[in-house]
C-alpha cells in the first residue's frame, strides 16, 4: 500500500452538500445558448438516476463516452512535485471503487491536475464533497469532469499474441546464451560463435 503525503491521510467521508442542477447561469443566460446539451437528451439513463444531479454536457460529446464522463471527476491544485496517481487512487478508494486515475498538466509547473474515474456514478457526489480538503500542502479542487479519461489503446488479441511470441523468443535466446555460458567449452560452439560473438 502506497503511503499518502503528510496531511493527506484517509479522512471520514463528509456528508455531501446538496447539489442542484443548474439550467441557467445566474445572469439569466441559457446554458443551451452556450452549447450545453441536456444530459437526458444524450443519455436517457441519466434521467433515471434522479438523486445524482449532473451538470449539462458541453458541445460535441461522444454519446458512447457519456457514462464515463458521469463517473469521472476533475481533481485540481495538486502539488506537481509530490503528488502521484497511486496516492490519488488510495485517497479516492474511500469514496468508491476507482477504475482509472490519469495525471495531467505540466510537471514543471507548481500544480497539476488529474481525472479520477469511478466504477459507478454514486461515487461522484461523495468525491465532490472532498472539494477544499487538504491533500498534502494544498486544498483539493474537485469538480464534475467535462471529459472522459483518455486511456491507452487496447491491443487486439492478434497483436497481443504477436508481442508475446516476440518476448518468448527473446527469453529462449537469453536462456540459450546463459546455458551456453555456464557449460565448459561454450566458446567452441559454432552456433554460439555465429549468433553472439562472431567468428574470430
Structure description:
- The chain is an alpha+beta fold.
- It contains seven helices and eight strands; from the N terminus they run βααβαβαββαβββαα.
- It has a domain at 63-144: Alpha-Beta Plaits.
- Helices cover 32% and strands 18% of the residues.
- The strands form three sheets. A four-stranded antiparallel beta sheet has the order 4-5-3-8. A two-stranded antiparallel sheet has the order 1-2. It has a two-stranded antiparallel ribbon with strand order 6-7.
- The relative contact order is 0.14.
- Belongs to the splicing factor SR family.
- This is Splicing regulatory glutamine/lysine-rich protein 1.
- Residues 71-147 form the RRM domain.
- GO terms for molecular function: RNA binding.
Descriptive key words:
Alpha-Beta Plaits; two-stranded antiparallel sheet; elongated
Total beta strand runs:
8
Our measurement of the CA-to-CA distance between the termini, rounded to an integer number of angstroms, reads 53 Å
The major β-sheet equals:
4 strands, antiparallel
Number of helices: 7
At the fourth CATH level, what is the homologous superfamily of the domain at 63-144?
RRM (RNA recognition motif) domain
Which SSEs are present, and which pair or pack?
Elements: E1 36-37, H1 39-42, H2 44-49, E2 57-58, H3 66-70, E3 72-79, H4 85-92, E4 98-104, E5 111-118, H5 123-128, E6 134-135, E7 138-139, E8 141-144, H6 157-182, H7 190-197
Antiparallel strand pairs: 1-2, 3-5, 3-8, 4-5, 6-7
